[in-house]
C-alpha cells in the first residue's frame, strides 16, 4: 500500500504511545501491567531491568493470531523480517542485518534456542512453535553468554514446564482454504517431586494461493510434533529438567511466480502468469508433491539440564542433542515443465555440553562463568537439474554437488555485574572460542554431458577443505536508574560469525579451495537507550538508538544462472521505540516501530531483506457480555516499507506491505472454553517477500517472486481442563 508512507507510521506509533506521557501519574489508578520475567542472560530477570532491546510474546498471544512458526512470528515483531527462498533457504533479519538464504554451509547471525538448545542449522528454524511459555526476540549482539551465531541477535523459545496438578488443554483450528490443526498438552504429575508434561500438534492446512495446474492450495503444511518434558526435584539442592521433541515438517508447493512482464518476453514464450497474486501456474515431475515442490524434514531434539544449588552459587550442566533428515524437490523455473529444479538430501546431527556457575548472593558483584563444547556432522547431496532449450547447451545439463562437513567449537566465558551504587551498575563479559571446520566438497557431471556441466561448471574431485577461527568476543553495558521507574543504559557488543565454505558457489576453475572460501563476519553493536515504567506501573515505554558496524558481511548473489559469494563491509543504524499500556482492566494497547538504514559501506547499496521501517500497533479488549460469557477482541496492524530481496540491489525494490490481523472470541468467564474467529491479512495486501532473477535465459530482466499469504479466515476452539 503506497499510501502508508514513512512519517505516518512514526506519527501513528507516537499517537498510540503518547497517552503514556500525557496522563498525570499521581492521580492515575489503572491496573498495573504484569511483570515479564525473561532468561535472555541465563538468569531470571525482569524485562524492564535488562539493558537489551527485547520483544516478548506469550503463548496466548501466539494462539490469538494462530502463529505456528517463526515466519508468522515476524509479523508481530518490529525490526524482524523472515523470508525464505524456493529451497527454504532462510533470510532472518534483525534491524536490517541478515544472513544469506542459499548457502546451507553458512552460519546464521541470529541464533535460535529452544529451552537453551542451540539450533546449529537454519533448517531447524522452520520447526513449528507450540506450547510455549514465551518467545524472546533479543536484538543486538549476545556473544558472551549465548555465544555461537548471535552476532546480530537471538531468539529464545521457552516451553511450558510440567505443572503440579493434572490438567491441560486442547485446541482445534479450521481454515477457510481447507484443512485443520490440532494442538494440546497435559500435565501428569507422578509425585510431589516428579512432574511430566506431554504436548503436541498436528496440522494439515492448505495455503491461500491456488496452483491452477495442480489444483493445490499452496503451500500445504502437513506437520506434526510431540514433546515430552519432565521436572524432577532430586533433592533440596539438585533439580533435573529433561525434554525430548520429535516431529516432521512437510511443505508442499510454494508461491513463487513471475512478478511482471514489461516487455512481453514471458508472454512470447507462452508464460501468462506474470502478476504477483494468489494464482500460480507451474508444475514439476520431480518429487512426491503431485506436481508441486516438496519439502520434508524429520527432526529430533533432546535437552537435559541439571541444577545444583549451593549456598551462594548455582552450578548448571546442560547437555543437548539435535538432528534432522531432509528431502527437498524444488521447482525453481516457475513454469509448467522441468527447466530448473534442485533435488536435495541432507543428514545432520549436533551435540553440545555446557557447564556454568553463577552467583546467587545478590551482593556487590554478580557473576557467571562457564565452558561450552559443540560438535556437528552434516552431509548434503544436491542435483541441479538444468534443461533450458538454448542453442549450444549453454543452460542444459544436470550436476551433483556434495559436501560433508564436521564442526568442533570450544568456548570459555565469564560475565559479571558490578553494583557500583544503588543506582549505577556496570556489566561486562568475555568469551574466548575456537571453531574448527573440516569438509570435503565434490561436483560430478550427470549425463547428458554438455558444455554447461563440463566446461562452464566443471566437475572436480572430492576436495578436502579445512578452516579454523579463534575468537575473542564480549559485551559491556552501563546502567543508571534516573528514578525508581526509569533506567538509562549504554551497551556495546562484539560478535563473530565464522567463515567457511560456499557449498553452492559457482566454481569456474574447478578448485573449491580457491573459490569456495568465505571470511568470518564480525559485528560491533553500539546502543544507547532507556526503559521506563509509567502511570504507577500501568504502562512501559522503551526506546533505543543503535549503530551496527559489520566487517566482511557474508553475502550470496544469485544472477539467475550462478551463485556468487563474497564479503562486504556494511553498517546499519537507526532507532526503535516500543510501549504497552494497560488502560483499564479490560483494555490494553501495545506498539513499536524500528527504523533501520542498512547498506554496504563502499557501494552505498541497500542490504537485502532490510526494510527501513517496520512497525506494529496492537490492541487487546475483553468485555463481560453477561454473567456467563466474555467477549474478546485482539488486533494487530503491521507495516514494513519496501525492501530489496537480493544483495547489491540485484533486482528492483519490492513494494511496502501493510497487514491487519483481527481475532474476535467468546468464552465462559473462566475461559474454560473459547471460540475464536481469526482474520489474517484482512487488508489483503500482497507484496514481494523474496525474489530472484528469473532463470529462463531468454527472458532477461524478469523477476521470480514469492508473496506473503493473502487474506485468510480461521475458526479456533480451545478447551482447558
TrEMBL record:
Q: Which PROSITE patterns match?
A: TONB_DEPENDENT_REC_3
Q: Which first-to-last residue range defines the signal peptide?
A: 1-29
**UniProt subcellular location:** Cell outer membrane
Report the protein name in the record. Answer: TonB-dependent receptor
Gene3D superfamilies linked: TonB-dependent receptor, beta-barrel domain
Specify the TonB-dependent receptor-like beta-barrel domain's residue ranges: 246-682
Keywords from the named record = Cell outer membrane, Ion transport, Iron, Iron transport, Membrane, Receptor, Signal, TonB box, Transmembrane, Transmembrane beta strand, Transport
Q: What is the lineage of its organism?
A: Bacteria, Pseudomonadati, Pseudomonadota, Gammaproteobacteria, Cellvibrionales
Q: How does it sit in the membrane?
A: Multi-pass membrane protein
Amino acid at each position: 500500500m503506497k499510501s502508508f508512507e514513512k512519517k505516518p507510521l512514526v506519527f501513528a506509533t507516537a499517537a498510540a504511545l503518547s497517552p503514556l506521557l500525557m496522563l498525570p501519574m499521581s492521580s492515575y489508578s489503572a491496573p498495573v501491567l504484569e511483570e515479564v520475567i525473561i532468561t535472555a542472560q541465563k538468569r531470571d530477570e525482569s524485562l524492564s531491568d535488562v539493558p537489551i532491546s527485547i520483544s516478548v510474546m506469550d503463548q496466548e498471544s501466539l494462539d490469538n493470531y494462530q502463529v505456528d512458526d517463526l515466519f508468522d512470528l515476524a509479523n508481530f515483531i518490529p525490526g524482524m523480517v523472515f523470508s525464505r527462498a524456493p529451497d527454504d533457504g532462510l533470510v532472518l533479519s534483525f534491524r536490517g542485518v541478515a544472513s544469506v538464504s542459499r548457502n546451507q554451509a553458512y552460519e546464521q547471525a541470529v541464533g535460535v534456542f529452544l529451552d537453551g538448545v542451540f539450533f546449529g542449522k537454519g533448517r531447524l528454524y522452520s520447526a513449528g512453535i507450540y506450547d510455549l511459555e514465551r518467545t524472546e526476540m533479543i536484538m543486538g549482539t549476545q556473544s558472551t553468554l549465548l555465544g555461537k551465531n548471535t552476532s546480530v541477535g537471538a531468539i529464545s523459545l521457552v516451553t511450558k514446564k510440567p505443572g503440579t496438578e493434572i490438567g491441560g488443554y486442547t485446541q482445534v483450528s479450521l481454515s477457510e482454504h481447507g484443512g485443520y490443526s490440532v494442538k494440546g498438552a497435559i500435565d501428569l504429575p507422578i509425585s510431589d517431586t516428579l512432574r511430566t508434561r506431554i504436548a503436541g500438534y498436528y496440522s494439515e492446512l492448505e495455503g491461500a494461493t491456488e496452483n491452477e495446474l495442480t489444483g493445490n492450495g499452496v503451500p500445504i503444511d502437513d506437520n506434526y510434533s510431540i514433546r515430552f518434558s519432565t521436572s524432577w526435584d532430586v533433592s533440596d539442592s539438585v533439580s533435573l529438567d529433561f525434554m525430548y521433541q520429535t516431529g516432521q515438517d512437510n511443505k508442499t508447493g510454494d508461491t513463487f511466480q513471475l512478478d511482471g512482464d514489461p516487455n512481453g518476453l514471458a508472454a512470447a514464450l507462452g508464460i501468462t502468469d506474470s502478476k504477483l497474486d494468489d494464482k500460480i501456474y507451474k508444475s514439476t515431475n520431480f518429487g512426491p508433491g503431485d506436481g508441486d515442490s516438496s519439502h520434508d524434514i524429520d527432526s529430533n531434539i533432546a535437552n537435559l539440564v541439571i541444577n545444583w544449588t549451593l549456598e551462594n552459587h548455582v552450578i548448571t550442566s546442560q547437555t543437548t542433542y539435535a538432528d534432522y533428515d531432509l528431502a527437498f524437490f524444488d521447482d525453481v523455473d516457475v513454469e509448467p515443465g522441468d527447466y530448473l529444479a534442485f533435488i536435495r538430501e541432507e543428514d545432520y546431527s549436533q551435540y553440545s555440553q555446557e557447564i556454568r556457575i553463577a552467583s546467587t548472593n545478590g551482593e556487590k558483584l554478580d557473576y557467571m562463568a562457564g565452558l561450552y563444547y559443540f560438535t556437528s556432522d552434516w552431509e548434503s547431496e544436491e542435483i541441479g537439474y538444468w534443461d533450458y532449450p538454448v542453442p549450444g547447451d549453454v543452460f542444459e545439463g544436470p550436476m551433483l554437488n556434495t559436501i560433508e562437513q564436521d564442526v568442533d567449537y570450544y568456548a570459555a566465558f565469564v560475565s559479571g555485574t558490578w553494583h557500583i551504587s544503588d543506582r549505577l551498575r556496570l556489566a561486562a563479559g568475555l568469551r574466548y572460542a575456537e571453531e574448527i571446520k573440516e569438509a570435503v566438497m565434490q561436483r560430478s557431471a550427470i549425463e547428458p554431458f554438455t558444455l554447461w556441466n563440463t566446461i562452464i561448471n566443471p566437475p572436480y574431485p572430492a576436495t578436502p577443505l579445512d578452516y579454523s577461527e579463534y575468537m575473542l568476543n564480549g559485551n559491556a553495558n552501563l546502567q543508571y536508574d534516573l528514578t525508581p521507574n526509569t533506567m538509562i543504559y549504554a551497551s556495546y557488543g562484539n560478535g563473530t560469525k565464522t567463515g567457511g565454505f560456499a557449498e553452492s558457489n559457482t566454481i569456474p576453475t574447478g578448485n573449491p579451495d580457491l573459490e569456495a572460501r568465505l571470511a568470518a563476519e564480525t559485528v560491533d553493536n553500539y546502543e544507547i537507550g532507556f526503559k521506563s515504567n509509567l502511570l504507577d506501573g500501568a504502562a512501559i515505554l522503551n526506546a533505543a538508538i543503535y549503530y551496527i558496524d559489520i566487517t566482511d558481511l557474508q553475502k550470496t548473489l544469485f544472477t539467475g544462472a550462478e551463485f556468487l559469494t563474497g564479503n562486504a563491509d556494511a553498517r546499519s543504524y537507526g532507532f526503535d521505540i516500543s510501549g504497552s499500556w494497560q488502560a483499564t482492566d479490560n483494555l490494553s494497547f501495545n506498539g513499536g516501530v524500528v527504523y533501520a538504514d542498512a547498506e554496504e559501506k563502499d557501494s552505498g547499496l541497500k542490504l537485502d531483506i532490510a526494510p527501513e521501517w517496520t512497525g506494529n500497533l496492537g490492541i487487546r479488549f475483553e468485555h463481560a457480555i453477561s454473567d456467563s460469557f466474555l467477549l474478546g477482541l485482539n488486533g494487530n496492524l503491521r507495516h514494513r516499507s519496501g525492501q530489496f530481496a537480493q544483495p547489491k540491489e540485484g533486482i528492483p525494490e519490492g513494494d511496502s506491505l501493510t497487514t491487519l490481523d483481527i481475532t474476535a472470541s467468546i468464552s465462559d468467564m473462566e475461559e474454560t472454553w473459547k471460540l475464536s474467529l481469526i482474520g489474517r491479512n484482512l487488508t489483503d495486501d500482497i507484496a514481494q517477500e523474496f525474489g530472484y532473477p528469473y532463470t529462463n535465459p531468454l527472458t532477461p530482466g524478469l523477476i521470480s517472486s514469492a508473496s506473503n499469504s493473502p487474506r485468510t479466515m480461521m475458526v479456533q476452539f480451545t478447551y482447558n481442563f
